[in-house]
């Protein structure tokens, strides 16, 4: 699969001729300011270490936990994905469109999105998770980058899949990050999910990752964030967590840009 759209490709204008290999995989690319190039390693377009992005230390710690427990995390989630939501999302997308899975982790949802008929591009900052993803999907486009500063052209994608993507960002980062991601969307569905609550990088015990910091939100919080982006046909519901079910409710939102 080539990372090219009818808008001339998903990478920024300033790039080297060798950025795309003949097999459609990314070898290198000019990316966000301060990180000059990516390098191909283990089949992933790799950038710098998480600390290079001046992220909150609690966010960096969460990335390290996903690196450490990537294999266990993939196995735990393998049969516990929001399949019904994914099918609803895919039904609103155009078959064959590029879809951005921001915070893709070890590719549990990437594989389901692919099987649903779209072409997902996976992005995560945890390189261990992306390495697991590469083993699951050996020919799939994967990029290591912070979701707050992704290296793609505006309007490159036909959908945004954001499953737990903001869980380890400060609450004040949610609005700007969503606005950044929406600039990458041409049209199509936007899926968002997070844990129900009012924490702002508060300490929690995760059954796989151990002690981490997590940000939660209410239905009203998520509705306001999604409505601020002008999404149509927006639904926001509270559902059981796919992994812990009723022990940890999630807020799930789905809308679309037309």
Q: What is the fold-level CATH name, i.e. the topology?
A: Rossmann fold
Strand content: 25-35%
Any idea how many domains?
Answer: 1
Fraction of residues in helix: 25-40%
Specify the oligomeric state: single chain
Number of strands: 11
Ends apart, CA distance between termini: 26 Å
Whole-number average pLDDT? 81
CATH class: Alpha Beta
Largest sheet: 7 strands, mixed
Task: Write out the CATH superfamily name.
Answer: Vaccinia Virus protein VP39
Q: In which order are the strands of the major sheet placed? A: 5-4-3-6-7-11-10
Number of helices: 7
Contiguous runs where pLDDT drops below 50 for at least 5 residues: 1-8, 13-42
CATH 2nd-level architecture? 3-Layer(aba) Sandwich
Helix and strand pattern: EEHHHEHEHEEHEEEHEE
Gyration radius, rounded: 17 Å
Structural class of the secondary elements?
Answer: alpha/beta
Question: Judging from the principal axes of the Cα atoms, what is the shape?
Answer: globular
Describe this entry's structure for a reader:
This protein has 258 residues and is α/β, with parallel strands linked by helices. It has one domain (39-257): Vaccinia Virus protein VP39 (Rossmann fold, 3-Layer(aba) Sandwich). It is built from seven helices and eleven strands. The chain has helices at residues 57-68, 70-77, 83-92, 108-115, 127-136, 171-183, 219-227, and strands at residues 39-41, 44-46, 98-102, 119-124, 142-144, 160-163, 188-195, 202-206, 210-214, 232-241, 245-257. It has a seven-stranded mixed beta sheet. A hairpin with a 2-residue loop joins strand 1 (39-41) and strand 2. It is globular, with a radius of gyration of 17 Å. Residues 1-8 and 13-42 have low confidence and may be disordered.
């Amino acid at each position: 699969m080539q990372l090219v759209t009818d808008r001339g490709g998903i990478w920024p204008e300033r790039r080297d001729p060798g950025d795309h290999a003949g097999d459609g995989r990314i070898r290198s690319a000019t990316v966000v300011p301060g990180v000059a190039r990516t390098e191909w390693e283990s089949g992933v377009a790799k950038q710098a270490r998480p600390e290079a992005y001046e992220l909150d230390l609690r966010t960096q710690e969460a990335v390290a936990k996903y690196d450490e427990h990537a294999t266990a995390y993939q196995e735990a989630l393998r049969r516990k994905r929001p399949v019904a939501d994914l099918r609803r999302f895919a039904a609103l997308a155009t078959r064959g469109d590029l879809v951005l899975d921001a915070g893709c982790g070890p590719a549990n949802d990437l594989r389901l999105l692919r099987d649903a008929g779209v072409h997902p591009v996976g992005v995560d900052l945890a390189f261990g998770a992306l390495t697991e993803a590469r083993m699951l999907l050996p020919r799939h486009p994967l990029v290591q980058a912070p979701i707050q500063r992704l290296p793609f052209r505006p309007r490159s994608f036909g959908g945004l899949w954001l499953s737990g993507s903001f869980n380890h960002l400060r609450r004040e980062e949610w609005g700007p990050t969503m606005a950044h991601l929406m600039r990458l969307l041409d049209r199509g569905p936007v899926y968002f999910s997070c844990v129900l609550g009012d924490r702002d990088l508060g300490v929690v015990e995760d059954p796989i990752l151990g002690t981490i910091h997590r940000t939660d939100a209410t239905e009203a919080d998520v509705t306001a964030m999604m409505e601020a982006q002008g999404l149509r046909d927006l639904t926001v519901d509270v559902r059981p967590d796919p992994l812990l079910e009723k022990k940890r409710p999630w807020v799930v939102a789905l809308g679309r840009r037309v």
